[in-house]
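> forwarded from #structure-qc
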């Protein structure tokens, strides 16, 4: 089931955020994610966050700021079960256009977004990590 974020979801969401970022971005030092943990933890309640919950356990979530997808995160054990696609389709259902940034080296995510109808609009270097990232857009 997909539902809106509730404050008591924060601990589970942050565990998923940290674990999936470290796994998906092995090309970025884990220290980067650890250093940004508290800042993200403070931003989550301010964003539009939708969680995918199964038997009372959060398996994934999507965070938005207006029509910008800050991220779609699915716990490692639940990946490849269409949870990411369901979360994406949920946010597509009330947006006619979506944007996001994804690291070029995160090949799995790039393939996912291309498969889901996004196109690369721009390539740039993330000042914080020095990694190349794609700006991608989807339009209905």
């Amino acid at each position: 089931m997909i539902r809106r974020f509730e404050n008591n979801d924060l601990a589970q969401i942050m565990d998923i955020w940290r674990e999936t970022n470290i796994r998906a971005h092995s090309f970025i030092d884990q220290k980067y994610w650890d250093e940004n943990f508290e800042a993200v933890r403070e931003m989550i309640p301010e964003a539009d966050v939708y969680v995918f919950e199964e038997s009372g356990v959060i398996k994934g979530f999507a965070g938005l700021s207006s029509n910008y997808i800050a991220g779609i995160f699915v716990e490692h054990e639940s990946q490849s079960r269409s949870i990411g696609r369901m979360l994406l389709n949920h946010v597509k259902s009330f947006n006619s256009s979506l944007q996001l940034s994804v690291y070029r080296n995160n090949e799995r995510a790039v393939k996912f977004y291309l498969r889901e109808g996004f196109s690369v609009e721009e390539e740039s270097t993330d000042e914080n990590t020095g990694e190349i990232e794609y700006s991608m857009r989807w339009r209905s």
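QC bot note: The chain is about 35% helix and 35% strand. The chain has a mean pLDDT of 96.
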